[in-house]
Amino acid sequence: MNSKNYPWILVGLLWVVALLNYMDRQILATMRPAMQIDISELQSAASFGYLMAIFLWIYGFMSPVSGIIADKFSRKWLIIGSLFVWSGVTFALGFATTFNQLYVLRAIMGVSEALYIPAGLSLIADFHSTKTRSLAIGIHMTGLYMGQALGGFGATVANAYSWQATFHTFGFIGIIYSMILIFFLRDKTSSEQVVEGIDQIHLKKGSSLFSGLALLFTNVSFWIILFYFAIPSLPGWATKNWLPTLFAENLNIPMTLAGPLSTITIAASSFIGVILGGILSDRWVQKNLKGRIYTSAIGLGLTIPSLLLLGFGDSLVHVIGAGAFFGIGFGMFDANNMPILCQFVSAKHRATAYGVMNMTGVFAGAYITNLLGKSTDAGNLGNDFAMLAGIVLVALIVQVSFLRPKSNDFTAYESQ
């Protein structure tokens, strides 16, 4: 395999993993109407919220652990193992007959899926320099959005066949692909590390397992990034888990239509956002060290009026338009989180750092998922969606005001 082209081949390989990652977790969000016929507990929106939230809580707790593991051991085998397990869990969900079985399987899925993102993003960051890093990660993110969009067809497929067959099919695809990756995925050796300064970065194999965490939590910039990542996770996870329901309620349409319509709207617009945000960021940062930060801020700014319109809009034009602008803005934000992190954290701690960020964001997501479940039962889903715009504005102001990078690519030789 041509080593010169491999960084982009890697993005292509992991694009499919990202697609499967989100597709397998997302299909449950639209299949509630079909599943509640067989599993009565799912008739309660609050109970369904608990089912979605357990995944997020477990996923969140596991994220820092998975980041530490990815910084210490083979990212290739971590990615392959993670994909194999969560695909097996997806397959097994088709055999569930009780709410408790669904609950346990979703918890296991939270463990296995948490292992992927820190390893995958840090592996891409290893292979791509600052000139292509945002675009590479942005392209990878389109896999997540495509998986989210395909997951929106869960209700449609379940309606045509059965919800059990839907889980079986999606899970089987992932199991096969994990075996294919064994032959094509590879780690980057220390001698191949991207050089962006006076020297190469060499990993300290003998360092303490938790030394990275200690280093991160004494880095003020990392705390700001952590806050900035967590707050937009509230509307980010809200759209993933409750946007189909919001579309169905605001537009008075069935879930079989609302699921694909909402997820395709977000996925297609996010695709535009990550590519636009990746190209703009990679060019801007060559001229201004805050280029990635400004690009991310522009994207996040677009989500603020979008959230207001999503919450209060009651026509197809309003809701679809708001969803499209939210996707573009969130895509620009999403494409630059790891590249911004690379400006403040060295390569040997990036997976750990992203794991902590993922944990914080997911816990915010678990909170909002539970809250919006109760909000749905009370008939206040639209109002609560709109309220998220205010706290996103606070995060944007903090990020632009206090993040001041000193280089394009932070190395172990720079002072924390």
Task: Write a compact overview of the structure shown.
The protein is 77% helix and 0% strand. The chain contains 17 helices and no strands.
Describe the protein.
The protein has about 425 residues and is mostly helical. It has 17 helices and no strands. Helix 12 packs antiparallel against helix 13 and helix 13 runs antiparallel to helix 14. The two termini are about 40 Å apart.
Number of helices: 17
Task: Give the class from helix and strand content and strand pairing.
Answer: mainly alpha
User: What is the general shape?
Assistant: globular
Number of strands: 0
Largest sheet: none
Radius of gyration: 20 Å
β-strand amount: under 5%
Helix content: over 70%
Distance between the termini: 38 Å
Q: Please, what is the average pLDDT?
A: 86
Low-confidence regions: 194-206
List the helices and strands in order.
HHHHHHHHHHHHHHHHH
Secondary-structure topology with pairs:
Blueprint: H1 6-30, H2 32-35, H3 45-72, H4 75-93, H5 99-114, H6 116-127, H7 133-151, H8 154-160, H9 163-184, H10 211-216, H11 220-251, H12 255-287, H13 291-312, H14 316-335, H15 337-342, H16 350-378, H17 381-402
Helix pairs in contact: 1-4, 1-6, 1-7, 1-9, 3-5, 3-6, 3-16, 4-5, 4-6, 4-9, 6-16, 7-12, 7-14, 8-9, 8-12, 11-12, 11-13, 11-16, 11-17, 12-13, 12-14, 13-14, 13-17
Question: What would the keywords be for this entry?
Answer:
416 residues, mainly alpha, 17 helices, globular
